[in-house]
């Protein structure tokens, strides 16, 4: 493993139609999760979810743009000067308004070992491309 890895976000392997950059894998990070999510304006399709199944807490950091996060019925604005931590069992959903948003998502297992999600591994096919002719 090199002493450091440098990569432009827009050059990273992406999934989910290009909106999910596999930043963790591209940089060789193994101790925590890290993805860059690009949301278009008026994004509403990001699924509500929790991490009760894998125990991961998440931290979201806006790199550009604006959006909103709903956590267990509470709404907060996401702007570049705000960081949000969400507990594993909390339900969360992210949306945007009239502008796009680029979001850094960090994750780890408190007191445990991080295991990468299959969709964060380099070379795994894009789930949105399955069933399409290549």
Could you write a compact summary of the structure shown?
Helices cover 4% and strands 34% of the residues.
Number of strands: 9
Termini Cα gap? 34 Å
Along the chain, the helix and strand elements come as: EEHEEEEEEE
| Adjacency order of strands in the biggest sheet | 1-2-3-9-4-7
Largest β sheet strand count, sense and barrel closure: 6 strands, antiparallel
Structural class: mainly beta
Strand content: 25-35%
- What overall form do the CA principal axes indicate? globular
- Which ranges are low-confidence, i.e. pLDDT below 50, for 5 or more consecutive residues? none
Number of helices: 1
Oligomer: single chain
Radius of gyration: 15 Å
Walk me through the structure.
The chain is mainly β. Helix content is 4%, strand content 34%. A hairpin with a 2-residue loop joins strand 5 and strand 6 (74-78). The mean pLDDT is 93.
Supply the key terms:
mainly beta, 34% strand, six-stranded antiparallel beta sheet, 1 helix, 134 residues
Please outline the helices and strands.
Blueprint: E1 14-15, E2 20-21, H1 23-27, E3 33-39, E4 57-65, E5 67-71, E6 74-78, E7 83-86, E8 92-95, E9 101-108
Antiparallel strand pairs: 1-2, 2-3, 3-9, 4-7, 4-9, 5-6, 5-8
């Amino acid at each position: 493993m090199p002493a450091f890895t440098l990569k432009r976000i827009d050059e990273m392997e992406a999934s989910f139609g290009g909106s999910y950059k596999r930043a963790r894998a591209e940089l060789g990070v193994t101790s925590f999760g890290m993805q860059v999510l690009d949301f278009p304006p008026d994004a509403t399709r990001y699924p509500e979810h929790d991490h009760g199944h894998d125990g991961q807490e998440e931290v979201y950091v806006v790199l550009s743009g604006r959006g909103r996060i709903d956590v267990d019925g509470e709404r907060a604005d996401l702007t570049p000067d705000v960081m949000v931590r969400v507990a594993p069992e909390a339900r969360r959903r992210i949306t945007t308004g009239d502008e796009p948003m680029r979001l850094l998502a960090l994750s780890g297992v408190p007191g445990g070992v991080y295991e990468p999600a299959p969709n964060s591994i380099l070379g795994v096919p894009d789930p949105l491309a399955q069933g399409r002719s290549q």
